[in-house]
Amino acid sequence: MNVVQLIRSKRDGHALTDADINALIMAYTDGSVPDYQMAAFLMAAFKSGMTTAEMVALTHSMLYSGVVLDLSDLPGIKVDKHSTGGVGDKISIPLAAIVSACGVPVPMISGRGLGHTGGTLDKLESIPGFSTSMDIASYRRQLRELGVVMIGQTDDIAPADKKLYALRDVTATVEFIPFIAASIMSKKLAEGIDALVLDVKFGSGAFMAEEHDARRLAETMVRLGEEFGTRTVALLTRMDTPLGAAIGNWVEVAESIRVLRGEGPADVTALTLALAAEMLVLGGVASDAGQARLLAEEAVATGKALRRFEDLVDAQHGDVNVVRNPDSRPGAAPLAQIRVPDNAGRFVTAIDARKVGLACVELGAGRARKEDDVDPVAGFTLLKKPGDPIRPGEVLARVHTSSRDRAEKAGSDLLAAFAFGNAAPAVKELIVDRLDVGGWGRR
Ligand code: URA
Q1: Quick count: other Cβ atoms within 10 Å of Cβ 197?
Q2: Which residues line ligand 1 (CB under 6 A)?
Q3: CA angle, residues 279, 281, 285, in degrees to nearest 5
């Protein structure tokens, strides 16, 4: 392989062969192609575009850069869900418990916070003792015995993505649909799942700000899923405003527990049930979305889903007592409150999800550098959401943190994310569309 020739060819807009792409990805993964050449290649592809065949080859090479799990000896149709990332997006936590409680095995490999978005692993690790690392044998055992497992990406799963993602992050080559799609799908397909539900988000708090880009990303990932024999469905959802009332780590786990008790915020509950219904149909335990939804609602109403979550926490060494009594978690109480300013108007008209996410990272819920630790109790609770009437001096939000120093600055950044006015904003639907192999269209 002549790497310089490959970069030149891509720079000049030519399509590369499968063999070229595979050789490049393998050589980058084993260290024989250095970061500077890969960075040049990434930028060349970003600027010149990639054909569908190139993107499939890229996904294939990234997928087979490491271990591809085979779970076919375990009973059941294994289904996972992936969100393209948002603010207040704790859906994976109640969802995995509900779907598993309904009899569909859920092997879930999640990520950490990225940019302004939170990560499921950081949230789960805010449960004292909860471990998100596990060897493959234990992962298989827990999936077989409990029907659900939630861990982080191991070194052997899609190592090319791990290296490439870090390089893209520092070379301004993240926001390119073929790269995002190959990155997400290579990791998910390596989990050994039979089917996948995607939550593709757009809006200020998503990686795709524009709906049409999110649609293209969804189409690309559904096509890749089918190409690799994994049934894939995508919901297109809005991410202009944070999901639910809790944004951060422990606060989001506590809100997930409320969802499992049937007391969660309407938006989080609706999206969780919609995604659960898709997973239950794909998992073969329901024949249609209506029946699947009833099953999911019943798992919540009977407490089966909450018990499954407690068992998951126990199996992964977390403290089940804080799940049973979330207020007992040390540091959970808020340290500060944000109030409605004078002359704000009569309604909250918008809350900019990206600004809230950035303020939350600043508060310590996310990382400024890769090696930073996160504050497990850092987060916000929003008491008012868009459309809610307000009065001057009323509490708008609470700030949770283990660092009093950070509370004031994060509080004023959070306030800057709110917009107020005298007219209630139009209500926009959260779930905008649905895509499967047959095309777009709500069920
Ligand atoms: N999430 C990923 O896993 N990869 C991307 O490229 C973007 C979001």
Answers
A1: 27
A2: 84-85, 165, 174, 179-180, 183-184, 207
A3: 105
- Could you give the C-alpha distances from 441 to 200, 291, 354, in angstroms and in order? 15, 19, 28
Q: Looking at the predicted structure, is the pLDDT value of residue 430 above 70?
A: yes
pLDDT for 122 = 93
370 tagged catalytic:
no
Q: Which atom of ligand 1 is nearest to the CA of 111?
A: 3
Residue 391 known to be catalytic? no
Which residue shows structure tokens 């777009």?
A: 440
Residue nearest to atom 3 of ligand 1 (CA): 184
Active-site entry in 90, 112, 163, 187: 187
At 129, the amino acid letter reads G
The helix/strand/coil state of 208 is strand
Question: Residues 144-169: pLDDT tens digits?
Answer: 999 999 999 888 999 999 899 889 98
**Residue 12: half-sphere exposure toward Cβ, Cα within 13 Å:** 6
Query: Is the pLDDT reported for residue 93 higher than 90?
Result: yes
pTM score of the predicted model? 0.94
What spatial distance separates the first Cα and last Cα of the chain, rounded to whole Å?
48
pLDDT reading at 379 higher than 90: yes
Helix 92-101, helix 250-260: angle, nearest 10: 30
Active site annotation includes 168: yes
- As given in the structure block, the two tokens for residue 283 are 């998992």
Specify which residues 440 forms β-bridges with: 435
| Closest ligand 1 atom to Cα of 168 | 6
Whose Cα sits closest to atom 6 in ligand 1? 180
- How confident is the model over 179-189, as pLDDT tens digits? 999 999 999 99
Q: What atom of ligand 1 comes closest to residue 187's alpha carbon?
A: 3
Band (pLDDT 50/70/90 cuts) for residue 370 is: low
- Ligand 1 centre to CA of 435 (Å) is 20
Which domains, ranges and CATH numbers included, belong to the chain?
3-49 (1.20.970.10), 79-325 (3.40.1030.10), 333-421 (3.90.1170.30)
pLDDT (0 to 100) of residue 155? 86
Q: To the nearest whole percent, how much of the chain has pLDDT over 70?
A: 99
Span from the CA of 190 to the centroid of ligand 1 (angstroms) = 15
User: Is the CB of residue 16 less than 8 Å from the CB of residue 51?
Assistant: no
183 an active-site residue?
Answer: yes
Candidate list 183, 186, 204, 256, residue with the active-site label? 183
Q: Which atom of ligand 1 is nearest to the CA of 184?
A: 3
Q: Encoding tokens for residue 251?
A: 């606060």
* Spatial contact of 319 and 376, defined as CB atoms under 8 Å apart: no
- From the list 393, 395, 397, 417, the residue with the least C-alpha distance to 407 is 397
156 noted as active-site residue: no
Kindly give the distance from the C-alpha atom of residue 322 to the centroid of ligand 1, in angstroms, as a whole number: 31
